[in-house]
Amino acid sequence: MQALRSTEADTRTRAFGLVVRAYRTPVMALLQRRWSLEPADAEDLAHDFFAAALEKEWFTRYASDRGKFRTFLRTCLFAFAASENDRNHSQKRGGAARHEVLRDDLTGTDQDDAMDVLFEQEWIRSVLQLSLESLQAEAQASAHEVHVQLFQRYDVEGSDLAVRPTYAQLGAEFGMPATQVTNHLAWARKRFRQHVLNTIRALTGSEQEYRAEVRTLLGIDVE
C-alpha cells in the first residue's frame, strides 16, 4: 500500500491498478448483496467508486495502524454508496437520478456478519486468481508452461471434481512418467505459494496486516 503514495506516477498507477484488480469483484459482490443490485448496475457503481477513489486519492489516506486495508476500502465503499443514495434523492426532486438502483436500506446492521464473510471470500478468490495469473506469466517466461498446466488440471480444476485424476493418468495425458508429474507439481505449488505471498504483500500496509492476511488465506504463520 505504500506504493499508492509513491512519488513516481508509474508506481502509483500500477499500485492502484492492482487494488482495482484485487477488489473489483469483491466490491461488485458486496454491492449486489447489500443493495440488491443487478450485476450491470453493480459493475457501473463499482467503476464510479474506483474512479472517485482515484480522483480524490482516498486510498492514500489509509493508515495501517487503524486496521486492515480491505476494511478501510469497504468503509470507503459504503460511504460512497450512501453519498450516491443521497444524490439520488436530491436529483429525484430536481431531475433524473444518477443511480436509481440504490435502495434505501443503508442502516441495517443485521447483515454485517454476512457482508464480512462475503467480502473476505471474494477477496480470497481475487488474490488466488491474481496469483495464478502471475504464475502463468512466470511459467511462460521460463518455459514452465507444462508445470502450470498440470497444476491447473490437478489443483485448480481438480478441486471441483468428485475424484481427481491420478498422477499416472495425468502422465499419460501429458506424455510423461508419474514421477515427472510429481516434480512439475512440486515446482508449480512452490511458485504459486510465493506468488500468493507476493500478492498479499503488495495489498497490505504493514507487516502485521501481511501476517494476518496470510494466516487468513493460507492458514500459516510466515517467518
Explain how this protein is built.
With 223 residues, the protein is mainly α. The protein folds into two domains: 1-108; 124-223, no CATH class. Helices cover 71% and strands 0% of the residues. It contains eight helices and no strands. Helix 4 packs across helix 7. The longest helix is centred in the middle third of the chain and has 30 residues, at 112-141. It is elongated, with a radius of gyration of 21 Å. The model has no long low-confidence stretch (mean pLDDT 90).
Question: What descriptors fit this protein?
Answer:
2 domains, mainly alpha, 223 residues
Shape category: elongated
Into which percentage range does the β-strand content fall? under 5%
| Contiguous uncertain segments of 5+ residues | none
Q: How many strands, which pairing sense, and closed or not: the largest β-sheet?
A: none
Structural class: mainly alpha
What is the CA–CA distance across the termini? 20 Å
Assign a percent range to the helix content.
over 70%
Element string (H = helix, E = strand): HHHHHHHH
Radius of gyration of CA atoms, rounded to a whole number: 21 Å
Output the number of helix runs.
8
Q: Could you report the average pLDDT, rounded to the nearest whole number?
A: 90
Count of domains: 2
Record field, number of beta strands: 0
